[in-house]
Amino acid sequence: MTFWGRPPIHVLELAEVIQKKLKDVSPNIWLMPPHRMHITTLELAFSRTAEEIDALKETLRPAIPAIASHSYLHRSRLVKPMVSYDLSAFALSFLPAAGEPPLSPPPTAPDNARVLAQGDPYTYHHLRRDVWGLARDAGVEVSSRYIVPSAHITLGRYLTNEDHATPAQRQRWVEAIDEINAWLEKEVWNNAESRLVGEWVVGQEKGFDVRLGTLWYGGGRTVQAGEGF
Asked: Is CB count within 10 Å lower at the N or C end of the chain?
């Protein structure tokens, strides 16, 4: 069971461009469909039975509406997207904003919310902390698989070794990622003139997706989706 942030359209557009660049180098990689893309703000539990997850959901139920829409009044900004990778997958990773010029399109009008927290001092890490606290206060013991904080959207996974079987293939893959990251830094970061936007204010367009089920590869089902701005 997790709380997912859903990327706004401009972040999805950037992710799709990067996916195409990676696919040109490794045609057999599996790409995450855009409608399944997400950032895991908090994982509550994993590798539990359906009955255990249902019990967890019922414990959390009174707090779910507030958690799902928490980003509506608590707005944190992510910037400087860069492709990261390991031995199983590759992702678009972000950093908390720290004074970079704003780039995101404005919220959908009218935006009359009395925002309680925003601006770069309120980082994505603060947002994750707050959501963790809401879950804890609801009586849920958070049991996340990964302890180190991250802000990333999975772009795809390696399902076979077909594209990376030789040292030369693996070197080309790494070089391609380095080239994409250099392009992002030069053309997209802090660039108000770029067609592609390298910034994400978490909660724009969509609030948190409270999600359970088989979540691998972006699956599962929504318990409640929060309000976006």
From this structure: C
